[in-house]
Amino acid sequence: MVIVKRKELSFSERLFLPEIARALSHSLRTLFRKKITRQYPEEPLLTTAVTRGQPRLLEKEDGHLACVSCGLCEIACPAYAITIDGQETDRFIEREPERFEIDMLRCILCGFCEEACPKDAIFMSNELELADYSREALIYDIEKLKRPASALAERMEYIRKINDRWSTSSST
Amino acid sequence: MDLWVVWLVKAVLIYGGLITLAAGMTLAERKVSAWIQWRIGPNRVGPWGLLQPLADGIKFLFKEEMVPQDANPVLFRLAPMMAAMPPMIAVAVIPFAGELTILGHATTLSIADIDLSAIFVVAIGGLSVYGVILGGWSSNSKYSLLGGLRASAQMVSYELSLLLCILAVVVLSGSLDLRVIVAGQSGSLFAWNLWTQPLAFLLFVVATFAETNRHPFDFAECEPELVGGFHTEYSSMKFALFFIGEYCAMIVMACLTVTFFLGGPEVPFWPAAPWFIQLACFLAKAGFFLFLFLWVRWTLPRFRFDQLMALGWKVMLPLALLNLFVTGALVSLGVLD
Q1: A-side interface with B, Cβ within 8 Å?
Q2: Predicted pLDDT of residue A172
Q3: Which of helix, strand or coil describes residue A121?
């Protein structure tokens, strides 16, 4: 059994008025505090390399995707958001996706596709804004998904660092 | 007696000012509440959000008007008007400034010249609770009804203390005319009734919070318990009218506090100030009390209903009676004049 001892209020506390004056002076001071509002469209959200935004495909400098349409991300995706149809190419890489679609309404931004990818071809970008007028418009195809390395550089660097950590720990 | 043209000019000036101020109060309410919570507040409509009240007004006008199926159709429509009108009528007798000349006629800046203006203002002000009670009852909703009931109980409890405080001031100045009460406080800063009636001043300010249904006494609305209280079922401009009434009541109460206790339009250390300086001084004093309404709202939590009643009947009423008795005794003994 817990006996809660209530503090006896002193006379000035029972009078309320000094305490009210104290509370009013406190709220008056908060009136002049620095505002913490972020005025969103003008002041965008801050992102870092760790930010897991929407998945994007890496476009290499020769204009082709790094993706070889192995389908590992498609399998790794817990939300079944990714659809890939592969095709053969004449290039050394031999395979590339003919169709690569991510249904952004299904995507849960978990980053499993990025982890699964053996070719470092898909990355979680720092793009966070997702809005459109129809469901169809939010199924992103290759044209909407591909980004040059410059746009993903920070995240790529971060992922390589993570992967290096795994490889060194497994070797020791 | 004023010429009718002079009356018209004064009426347009004062009512225009009142409605503008009430609209400004809705913005001030949101701005001050934002600042106290470290936010910025409305800043998208016009510079610094100044056109926000206008945008709100347009929105209210275009909103769908809903009348509940089982509501009393006549009283349901009448109630918002009854809530908005009394404070607008009461403002007619408040002396905002001293002598001024309009179109070559010397006059004072108050719309009506009534000898019993102190009685008039509380009589009319007391009517505003009917709007709240009728609105709550005619909606035929339990939350609205409870809000209306609470409002009536609260008004009865706090109007008494309010009137007893006014009565103490009236005893002191020997007149029910607001202009005479103001004149009695002229001369110096220390002639204000604030110094001779500090207890009445305190009780009056607390009672104005209850009278205008403001925090910490806003039991008629009381969102967490009663959804929206008496205006739960109201929408569009009818809803807005309740708010215009509430803000006008706040303005009138702030003006009355200034008139009764802070010397009305008296400018400290400058007795012969021109009328516009006096008006500015009056508005500055009233503005402090309007700010106090907002300031207290975001500082004190709401009372419990039994605490409200206990405070009203067991603390404020005896104190107000004691104050009136002591004041009367001192005046009749000639200690105060």
Answers
A1: 17, 20, 23-24, 26-28, 30-37, 39
A2: 46
A3: coil
pLDDT digits (tens, 9 = 90+) for B267-319: 877 777 777 888 888 889 899 999 999 899 888 888 888 888 888 899 889 99
How many other C-beta atoms are found inside a 10 Å radius of the C-beta of residue B252?
26
Note the Cα B277 to chain centre separation in Å. 23
Whether A36 has a pLDDT exceeding 90, the answer reads no
Q: Which residues pair with A101 in a beta bridge?
A: A83
Contact B40 A39 (CB under 8 A): yes
Question: Which of the residues A24, A25, A34, A39 would you substitute to probe the B interface, choosing the one with the greatest number of B C-beta atoms within 10 Å?
Answer: A24
- Token look-up 């389908």 returns A71
Q: Is the dihedral of CA B4, B8, B10, B15 positive or negative?
A: positive
Contacts of A32 in chain B (CB under 8 A): 35
**Residue type at A40 in one-letter notation:** Y
Q: Which residues in chain B have Cβ-Cβ distances shorter than 8 Å to A27?
A: 36, 295, 298-299
Chain A residues with CB under 8 Å of B299 CB are 20, 23-24, 26-27
Q: Which pLDDT tens digit goes with each residue over B192-204?
A: 888 888 888 999 9
State the nearest Cα–Cα gap between A16 and chain B, in angstroms. 11
For the record, the structure tokens of A67 come out as 């993706």
Q: Report pLDDT digits (tens) over B83-142.
A: 888 888 888 888 887 777 766 777 777 777 788 888 888 888 888 888 888 888 888 888
CB A114 within 8 A of CB A55: yes
CA B284 to chain centre: 15
Residue B66 CA, distance from chain mean position: 29
Dihedral sign from CA coordinates of A164, A165, A167, A172: positive
Phi, psi dihedral angles at B184 (to 5 degrees): -65, -15
What pLDDT score was predicted for residue B322? 93
| Structure tokens given for B327 | 């004041």
For B298, the closest of A27, A35, A39 (CB atoms) is A27
The pTM of the full predicted model, rounded to 2 decimals, is: 0.81
